[in-house]
Specification:
By secondary structure, this protein is of the alpha/beta class. The chain has a domain of 218 residues: Type I PLP-dependent aspartate aminotransferase-like (Major domain) (Aspartate Aminotransferase, domain 2), CATH 3.40.640.10. Strands 1-9-8-7-6-2-3 form a 7-stranded mixed sheet, with helices on both faces. The termini are far apart.
Amino acid sequence: MDTANIEKSGSIIGILYANQALSVLNIQSHNSFNSLVSQLLTQRKIPSKGWSDQLIEHFLHELSLMDSNNYQDRAGVGEREGRVLSSIVNRRHYYMAHGIGRSGDLFSIQPKAPGSSLILKLTCYMAKHAIKLAGIDKLDCLVLPLATGMALTMCLLSLKSSRPQGKYVIWSRIDQKTCLKCISSAGLIPIILETQLQGDSVITGDLESLLKTINPLEIVCILSTTSCFAPRSPDDVQRISELCKELNIPHVINNAYGLQCSKIMHMIKEALRLGRVDAIVQSTDKNFLVPVGGAIISSRDKKLLENINSSYPGRASMSPILDLFITFLTLGENGYVEILKNRKKLVVEFREKFADIGNKHGERLLDIRDNSISFALTCRNNDLGAKLFVRRVSGCRFVGDKEKEVCGFRFRSYGSSFDGYPNSYLTAACAIGLTSDEMNLFFSRLDQLLE
């Protein structure tokens, strides 16, 4: 309520109580809230300190009132007027029903939804700030309501439009179906760069030799990966970027869950400094603890981001953007930096305990270079992953010498990213959000099953 209405309430509850309420609302609520909003709109970055749930919800309700479906006495006579039948659905979306973008341009302001459009713009600014906090500055960002695979496809389609002879994507093998499918979905032909074995680590293969066999003009891009399941190490993105710069070949990095790892972010930073990197794609759920459905494309090439933006057909869902917006405000800069630090601290204990359990039962932790998220323990029990799952331990993968076909290509030892990997093993990840209690419960149940 404003001052005039507070004063009017004095005739009902008494002027003393009304003045007391006016003082509290002005000092603790109204002025404080407006100051936080002003800072967000002016600084356009994640606030230093996270907001309370009450403040965030208050802000969301104010923003929703800017959208036309919430106007009083409105008359909507179009085919899409933000009408929502279920009150549960309406509340779930904070009464924002129009989505984002306009036909043919994802980031254009939607005239019927200025509040939703403002959320989208602010989320992109805060994503840029989050990537800076994770280790890389001066990258522009698009936050898309698409998961990582489709975001990669959007990048490939945009690059394809600028390379008329391009038909190939050189793909450094990583045994995740999404990576091959995103190439196929873009109507392009994958050329597989086979990996190499160095000790226990599966590393980037001989790219130089492969490039000598292909006309660079026919290559849409090289697709590298930094966040991988052990025993795969992150690709040598610095070497790849230098070759891309030398031969004028675009380079896209699949950094799905790499934002949480300072070592990976340093590798990408060096690749940007020394070579060519056109786009970096990150998952929102794997890096910021939100539901599945969003991705961040970051780049120093504003024209590429504009092409991706304009190539999106029609409007898009607001949900993944809203989830990330709320989470940024909840965490604040201090909170985000803290969860990055917590994961980094936990990695040391995770690695030690995993190795100790392996040694106790005659197994060993594989020594994987530069991968401090995913870990692998040699394992001869091929149903260990399933046994852990029925005991409510999720995320582990058993990998043996099995074949799998993906998009017409057959791979041996699928999951290891290397044909004929010499060990069968079980993987587990120390990813952002993991707690000490979860970690200890996992190791306790693993220890029991290995007895």
